[in-house]
Write a structure and sequence with these properties.
elongated, 4-stranded parallel sheet, 5-stranded parallel sheet, 11 helices, alpha/beta, 42% helix
């Protein structure tokens, strides 16, 4: 997973130094977020420009005095049959002196894409009246030739839309991998499985369990009543003190090593009460660390 995130950074670093960027890939893989990030960086951006017009836009970026100094376009399966023309057009663009176009292909696993379409309740563009999975598989076949041409292939399966956008904007601001580390404090429930992407893992099942208090069971570790109950335990305060001291030692070491991402798993039985409360407390306790961005994610908070 770390290699996938580094691939996103490498692609972003190439994109922000190029005069002409073509973003392509599978529907739901994050093309919209990437193009918006480039637009914020001053690129003239076009979503779904007909492929036959790509050379014209490329020429505009090369004309002396033009206001379009840098351009980025999204090319995807919405092109339909015209998509077959793209490989030949892109090869010609590569030969244009001074243009140096970059082709970035975004993709995700089928499972991830199906989940994203389900969450947004949008139909797949190739399967308005079929399952998203059928559309995804059809699209992968249609995009195969373009994928082979790509200068960078980025798997966004383990990235949020915010992380993908940040990959572009942070590189443009002069950051490179290792200058800022993203620390994710991830709460989870052991009964739902241990997160495979955890770099560090802490088990807080020794703390008092609000699940066994009927009036607290419907709430989560974000609610005041649950926090008050958990904070009554001396073990809670001792655990937070020792764990924060450990993390405040470890995190700068990882930053110095050049690590870009660190995931800290906090687990209780169900992932709704104790792990959530402790994850939020760690986020607050780690806030303000130099060269570090702290985020919290509650994987199983919605499980009953």
């Amino acid at each position: 997973m770390r290699e996938k995130r580094h691939a996103a950074r490498r692609a972003a670093r190439t994109a922000v130094t190029s005069r002409f960027v073509v973003l392509t890939g599978l529907s739901g893989s994050g093309k919209s977020q990437a193009i918006r990030a480039l637009e914020d960086l001053g690129y003239f951006c076009v979503d779904n420009l007909p492929v036959m017009l790509l050379p014209m836009l490329a020429e505009l970026t090369l004309r002396a005095g033009t206001e379009i100094a840098r351009a980025a376009v999204v090319v995807d399966v919405r092109e339909g049959k015209l998509l077959r023309e793209f490989p030949g057009i892109y090869r010609k663009m590569k030969s244009i002196r001074g243009l140096n176009p970059v082709l970035i292909f975004l993709e995700s696993t089928e499972e991830t894409l199906v989940r994203r379409f389900s969450e947004t309740r949008r139909p797949h563009p190739l399967a308005p009246d079929r399952s998203a999975l059928e559309g995804i598989r059809e699209e992968k076949k249609a995009m195969r030739a373009i994928r082979r041409l790509a200068d960078h292939i980025v798997d966004t399966s383990e990235m949020t839309v915010h992380e993908l956008r940040h990959a572009f904007t942070s590189v443009a601001a002069g950051h490179v991998p290792g200058q800022q580390m993203v620390v994710t404090v991830l709460s989870f429930g052991f009964k739902h499985g241990i997160p495979v992407d955890s770099d560090l893992l802490f088990d807080v099942r020794f703390l008092p369990n609000p699940h066994f208090v009927p009036e607290l069971r419907p709430y989560t570790g974000r609610d005041t009543k649950v926090l008050r109950y958990i904070n009554k335990s001396k073990a809670t305060h001792e655990f937070l003190t020792h764990t924060l001291n450990l993390l405040k030692f470890l995190i700068p070491q990882y930053v110095h090593e050049g690590k870009s991402y660190l995931t800290i798993g906090i687990g209780c039985t169900g992932g709704r009460h104790r792990s959530v409360a402790i994850a939020e407390a760690l986020r607050k306790g780690l806030a303000g660390m130099p060269r570090v961005r702290i985020r919290v994610k509650h994987r199983d908070i919605a499980h009953e």
